[in-house]
């Protein structure tokens, strides 16, 4: 299982719902958590099958900026 960490521009609970639906469309088995309290609006994703580039593309598709933190 890989843990991927991203900086995003999510701003509200509605954004989290939209992102959750989009990520679940990629792979229903992945687990994710968004921290809107953090100034970087951190998104953490645990997955064994989805790549960081897939997550970044999916986030972009639904209107969010997403940058992997290494």
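^ Assign residues to that structure.
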């Amino acid at each position: 299982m890989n843990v991927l960490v991203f900086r995003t521009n999510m701003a509200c609970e509605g954004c989290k719902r939209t992102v959750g639906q989009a990520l679940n469309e990629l792979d229903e088995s992945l687990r994710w958590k968004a921290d809107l309290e953090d100034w970087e609006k951190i998104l953490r994703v645990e997955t064994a099958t989805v790549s960081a580039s897939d997550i970044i593309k999916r986030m972009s598709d639904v209107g969010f900026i997403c940058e992997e933190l290494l």
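The radius of gyration is 11 Å.
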